[in-house]
Design brief:
single chain, about 290 residues, alpha/beta, 8-stranded parallel barrel, binds 1,3-dihydroxyacetonephosphate
């Protein structure tokens, strides 16, 4: 089957909505996301970082997502999130991932371009959708006691973004416009730098689809503005991890003698589903199946 992800990004750009990438590392998180997508009839991207996919298994992730593709008939796309080494990117490509995010953003621009080019050679043979990244995005996907400080110097320079896009031919590009991975425990999440997003969009036009990382904790008004300005993919991880972990703790505490997973897990899946549904509604991606 040809990869329809590009078609969905074109549709999102034309109609002014965004596709959420929801990360998972357990079957229960995946079930919660799939149930949300089914209920709202939404296309979704399912993400696994290198760590998440090492825990779940690359081939296992492909196999189970294929089962859900067949059973739900939904447009589900499996993406390797923050693929950093050629070796791992090749493994994900061989396992059958639909999309790969090549993250060379911690390298100097020239090395980032070279890594991205090499990875693209591996992926293009298999009709894999490619996301690049310019402008390292700080933080980790968890509750952070101290959120990273984002300064002007951290933000993506429009000229650098254009250079990488032109030289590599990536399909989409993750840019740093002020967000970080994770949620600030004090509730002080940063605002999106709308001016920089406008500058990047002006420079790149429709050459590439723009991606926002660090979607958890970002104020809703900022997300809405970013979508209006052309962000067509937003990554969400921490919000789902928190929903899963908090619901699991609560469920086990409420049922201290229960040892049957299928008796204490359903509410955990529902907690994840609820968060995924909120995001799907915020991104206005429901009922966009073509
Ligand atoms: P959050 O954990 O802040 O949602 O970020 C997720 C992400 O960007 C994954 O690439």
């Amino acid at each position: 089957m040809p990869n329809k992800l590009k078609q969905y990004f074109q549709k999102a750009r034309k109609e002014g909505w965004t596709i959420g990438q929801f990360n998972f590392s357990t079957l229960e998180i995946l079930k919660g996301i799939i149930q949300a997508a089914e209920e709202l009839q939404s296309p979704v991207i399912l993400g696994t970082s290198e760590g998440e996919s090492k825990f779940f298994g690359l081939e296992e992730a492909v196999a189970i997502v294929n089962v859900y593709k067949r059973k739900t008939k939904l447009p589900l796309f499996l993406n390797l999130d923050h693929g950093k080494s050629l070796d791992y990117i090749k493994k994900a490509a061989d396992a059958g991932y639909d999309a790969i995010h090549i993250d060379g953003s911690s390298l100097p621009l020239r090395e980032n371009i070279e890594l991205t080019k090499k990875a693209i050679q591996i992926c293009r043979k298999k009709d894999i959708f490619i996301e690049g990244e310019v402008g390292f995005i700080k933080g980790v996907s968890r509750m952070l006691n101290e959120a990273p400080k984002i300064t002007e110097a951290d933000l993506t320079l429009p000229d650098d973004a254009l250079k990488l896009v032109k030289e590599t031919g990536v399909d989409s590009l993750a840019v740093n416009i002020g967000t970080f991975h994770g949620i600030d425990a004090s509730g002080q999440d940063t605002h999106i730098n709308i001016l920089r997003l406008k500058e990047i969009k002006e420079k790149l036009g429709d050459k590439v689809f723009l991606v926002l990382h660090g979607g958890s904790g970002t104020p809703k008004e900022d997300i809405i503005k970013a979508i209006k300005l052309g962000i067509v993919k937003i990554n969400i991880n921490t919000d789902l991890r928190l929903a899963y972990s908090n619901a699991l703790r609560k469920s086990l505490l409420e049922k201290p003698k229960e040892t049957t997973p299928y008796k204490y897990m359903p509410e955990v899946i529902i907690a994840v589903q609820k968060v995924a549904k909120e995001k799907i509604k915020l991104f206005t991606q429901a009922k966009r199946i073509c």
